[in-house]
Each structure stands twice: as structure tokens, then as C-alpha cells.
Amino acid sequence: MTTVRRLVGATLLSLALVGWTVAGEPRTFRGHWEWAATGDSGSLEAVFTPTGEGTWDVSFHFNFQGPHVFSGTAEGSLDDGKLTGTVIDEDDERSFSFRGMFRNGKLRGTHFEVTGGSRRRTGTLSLRS
Fold first, then answer.
1. DSSP secondary-structure letter at 64?
2. In this structure, are residues 50 and 22 in contact, taking their beta carbons and an 8 Å threshold?
3. What are phi and psi of 101, to 5 degrees?
4. pLDDT 10s per residue in the chain (129 long)?
5. Other beta carbons within 10 Å of 118
6. Chain center to CA of 82
7. Stated pTM of the model
8. Cα torsion at 22, 43, 61, 24 (round to 10°)?
9. How far is CA 7 from CA 1, 85, 103, in A?
10. What is the rounded CA–CA span in Å between residue 33 and residue 110?
11. Spacing of C-alpha 124 from chain mean position
């Protein structure tokens, strides 16, 4: 009976640890954005919440003629490697994609507006933890 209890306890602990790893805690990064057409720039905060292995819900918080929060999903690494994603503005009217590379905990990337199935480069972004 003791062996069965230990086995059940170890199994439950393993399942809890796996669930914690997948659920995880949100990670917040801060940095800057630049809008290529006008040269405007400002502070950027990005919150990545894990949804699986290398997948994230993301929200970008910034000011551009007022406060904005663009939300969507991302895929890739938040440490070293490629990161790509798509977000939609808070009015569900404009869609943007982004891509970049994390190196040594710092992201350098580009963002694009997506309309009618095509992408137009709109600027750059940088993040660090």
C-alpha cells in the first residue's frame, strides 16, 4: 500500500510540474518602437504569457497619440532565437505581424501592417528583460 501511495504521489507531482511548465508565469520585456514613415518612436512594454512549448499570448503596451494595447500570439524563443507573431489593435481594425531575433536576452525586430493579405513594413522594435 505504501508503494502505491508513493507511486500515485510521484505521478501527481509530475503532472503538476508539467502543468506548471506549460502554464508558466508571464514574462515582461521593455524596450522601444519606431514608426518608419514618420520617425516617431516611444517606449514599449511586451507581456508574453506561455500557452505551450515555444508559443505565447502577447500584448504590446505603448503610446502613440494616446495609449494602446495590441494583443495576439507569438511563436519562438524569448531567450535566444527567432520570434514571430501577429497582433491586432484594441479596436480589431488593424493587424500587424512582427519578427525578430533574441540574442543574449535582447530582441531586435521589425513590424509590418497586414492588409488584404499583404504586408507593409512599418518600423522596428527592440525589447529586453
1. S
2. yes
3. -130, 125
4. 444 344 334 444 444 444 444 468 999 999 999 999 999 999 999 999 999 999 999 999 999 999 999 999 999 999 999 999 999 999 999 999 999 999 999 999 999 999 988 999 999 999 998
5. 8
6. 12
7. 0.80
8. 10
9. 10, 41, 41
10. 9
11. 15
Cell readout for 85 is 507573431
Check: CB of residue 98 under 8 Å from CB of residue 87.
yes
DSSP 117: T
DSSP-based three-state secondary structure for 4: helix
Q: What distance in Å separates the CA atoms of residue 85 and residue 125, rounded to the nearest whole number?
A: 13
Separation between Cα atoms, residue 87 and residue 74, nearest integer Å: 9
Residues sharing a CB contact under 8 Å with residue 12, sequence separation 6 or more, in sequence order: none
Give the three-class secondary structure for 46: strand
* Measured distance CA(119)–CA(109) in Å, rounded: 15
C-beta of residue 76 within 8 angstroms of C-beta of residue 58:
no
Looking up cell 513590424, which residue turns up? Answer: 111
SS3 112: strand
